[in-house]
């Protein structure tokens, strides 16, 4: 190859300009939008950070308020430890209470018997204080009695003759009348022609003491 071939220049077209820089921007993306995209992203990031900081500050403020509000109940438990010693005193009282509860067991012992009471006759009466005995035309003369007493364990009815008492009826009720006489003695006859007969009522109490009353029935008729 000769030196002429090395230094040979190539002919360029007439309208070609080797010094001209061809820069063709993209058709779809304007240069202005390309330059503003990074700025808008930065703004979004900044606003997001500011919002996050505000939200965090709000949460911290709420937590502070809540902790302040709950601080009052926290002081209340501090008083409970001081109250707990007083409550511990109650177990000390319970041992003293157990002896008191055991004390009522003592009444299981039978109480002493009540004091013996004396019997007393409240009334002893007859509706026929006199009778009329007729020896010419003999007829029975019936007499009636009634009585009442208190604290009587036994009641006895009888007659007194020549200073000696003879029991007619025993185990009578504390209060009664002729209908309580046993057998056919509800119609109780006077012993004609005696001038008078003394009848008595005797009651005995739980203490063994007795009370005695007497009634004398007079014969106003024939006397034997």
Helix proportion: 25-40%
The span between the termini is: 214 Å
Strand line-up of the largest beta sheet? 2-10-9-5-6
Q: How would a textbook summarize the main sheet?
A: 5 strands, mixed
Evaluate the radius of gyration.
Answer: 68 Å
Q: Tell me the number of helical segments per DSSP (H or I, 4 or more residues long).
A: 3
Low-confidence stretches: 6-13, 16-27, 79-87
Helix/strand order: HHHEEEEEEEEEE
Count all strands and give the number.
Answer: 10
Whole-number mean pLDDT: 77
**Structure classification:** alpha+beta
Question: What does this molecule look like?
Answer:
The protein is of the alpha+beta class. The protein is about 35% helix and about 25% strand. The chain has helices at about 5, 30-70, 70-100; strands at about 120-125, 130, 140-145, 145-150, 155-160, 165-170, 175, 190, 195-205, 210-220. The strands form three sheets. Strands 2-10-9-5-6 form a five-stranded mixed sheet, with no helix packed on it. It is rod-shaped. The N and C termini lie far apart (about 215 Å).
SSE layout and pairings?
Blueprint: H1 3-6, H2 31-69, H3 71-102, E1 120-126, E2 130-131, E3 142-143, E4 145-150, E5 154-161, E6 164-169, E7 176-177, E8 188-189, E9 196-204, E10 210-219
Parallel strand pairs: 2-10
Antiparallel strand pairs: 1-4, 3-8, 4-7, 5-6, 5-9, 9-10
Compact overview of the structure:
The protein has helices at residues 3-6, 31-69, 71-102; strands at residues 120-126, 130-131, 142-143, 145-150, 154-161, 164-169, 176-177, 188-189, 196-204, 210-219.
